[in-house]
Write a structure and sequence with these properties.
alpha/beta, Rossmann fold, 17 helices, elongated
């Protein structure tokens, strides 16, 4: 929001509440605090809150830690446990989870809980900016919950909702929010839309801010993620065909990527996509489509291809080793992608579950992993956490590369080879040079690579 003095636009500092201390909420809160606003970051999880109060980031994300530390030290970023202290905030960013519920539909319970909290405490007219990925109709249910709680206490405070979906990538979320390729804002109240637009104008060029109706703004996010996921699954199908015909997926990717209508991004083949967005948003898009009589067949096919990709690792190992009972497999990487410690829906977990079920012992290394995650409970008894890629490979029959970390691509295989029982590499991310790896005496298996 700005005030105009002659021809000079001066930012109007606000009290802002950010609900949710995950990837999105942390980035949003730290950036607006850096811009001079007083930001209340509401995070009910006690351990996470203590980390934030100490000025540290609970997640690994380039640039975010320093921004949080600066905000807390300056007093502009104020982590709190509930909405009470944020009662006089005029802007509320909502960045809580909407995990898959029944039939893949987004679970709105956290959204409704936040809405109820705002309605119980708000003392000033407020604009609620929904950053969470929500289905069409969710904002109306949130507004109804806010108004119900306002009415229950006889408050005459007003509230408006604007949808502004996030387009952040794990590993570059902080820079993505600071320098976005676009910001989407959707709603029906012109004053609320103008206020949110002005907030973004403090650091985003005007031509990158797209204002539209609310349903379109919601579907932009789902459609964008579904398109990215579809590209990945399509390339994995092409990689399977390349393996069957002797073609090379690397050459195919280059040839396709030179077409300006396609471009080179998201054409990689391997064990599939994961994370907090693509799998969840595909499921929600399919559920939303079914609720409106649209079966979303491409989204369904994309999901099915992706679910099958991690299982191809054990198929490749079975083809080489036969029975895996008693084998030792080093797994390099456990996050869903490089440059992040986010292991939600990571294909690596499915690979490890397959290997353990086949009788393998897993020696895992990930530079961001200090303890075995609770999500691995069903197979953790057969998993040994190691402190380096070389340690994980010691005595192993095979290495599975599950994350495209530079460290794995540049690993000293010359030294590692002599410590292994058998020299096999299954490159689940196609990050290694097959010819170089084979020249060191390894059997190399990638995806779509002969």
């Amino acid at each position: 929001m700005t005030r105009t003095y002659g021809t000079i636009r001066v930012p109007l500092m606000r009290k802002i509440a950010v609900h949710g201390g995950g990837y999105v909420g942390l980035v949003v809160a730290s950036v607006f605090a850096r811009l001079g606003h007083v930001v209340y970051l509401i995070e009910p999880d006690g351990e996470r809150l203590r980390t934030l109060v100490s000025g540290e980031s609970p997640i690994s994300e380039p640039g975010l830690g320093a921004s949080i530390a600066d905000g807390v030290l300056s007093g502009r970023l104020r982590p709190i446990a509930d909405s009470v202290a944020a009662a006089d905030c005029s802007v509320h960013f909502v960045a809580v989870g909407t995990p898959p519920g029944i039939n893949g539909a987004a679970d709105e319970s956290q959204l409704i809980e936040v809405a109820a909290g705002i309605g119980r405490v708000a003392t000033v007219d407020s604009v609620i900016v929904v950053k969470s990925t929500v289905p069409i109709g969710a904002s109306g249910r949130m507004l109804a919950e806010i108004q119900r709680n306002l009415l229950a206490r006889g408050s005459r405070v007003s509230a408006q909702i604007v949808v502004s979906p996030e387009f952040l990538r794990a590993g570059s979320a902080y820079s993505d929010f600071n320098s976005p390729d676009r910001v989407v804002i959707g709603g029906s109240d012109s004053e609320a839309l103008s206020l949110v637009r002005d907030l973004y104008l403090e650091f985003v060029p005007a031509d990158r801010i797209l204002v539209m109706d609310e349903p379109s703004a919601i579907l932009v996010k789902y459609a964008a993620n579904a398109m990215l996921a579809t590209r990945i699954s399509f390339m994995n199908e092409i990689a399977a065909l390349a393996e069957a015909t002797g073609a090379r997926i690397d050459a195919i990717q280059v040839g396709m990527g030179r077409d300006p209508r396609i471009g080179p991004d998201h054409l990689g083949a391997g064990i599939g996509f994961g994370g907090s967005c693509l799998p969840k948003d595909l499921a929600a898009l399919k559920a939303m489509g079914l609720s409106h009589g649209i079966p979303m067949r491409i989204a369904h096919a994309t999901d099915q291809v992706n679910l099958g990709q991690p299982h191809k690792v054990i198929e490749k190992l079975h083809a080489l080793l036969g029975s895996l009972n008693g084998s030792v497999v080093a797994v390099w990487g456990s996050s869903f992608k490089e440059g992040t410690d986010d292991r939600r829906e990571a294909p690596a977990a499915r690979v490890m579950a397959d290997l353990v079920a086949a009788g393998s012992t897993i020696r895992v290394y990930d530079p961001t992993l200090s303890a075995l995650p609770a999500s691995w409970a069903t197979f953790e008894a057969a998993v040994v956490l190691t402190s380096s890629a070389a340690e994980a490979a010691f005595g192993a029959d095979a290495i599975v590369v599950a994350t495209a970390e530079r460290e794995f691509r540049d690993a000293s295989l010359e030294n590692i080879a002599s410590t292994m029982r058998r020299k096999i590499i299954v490159d689940g991310r196609n990050v290694m040079d097959p010819d170089k790896v084979r020249s060191l005496g390894f059997t190399y298996l990638g995806f779509g690579r002969p």
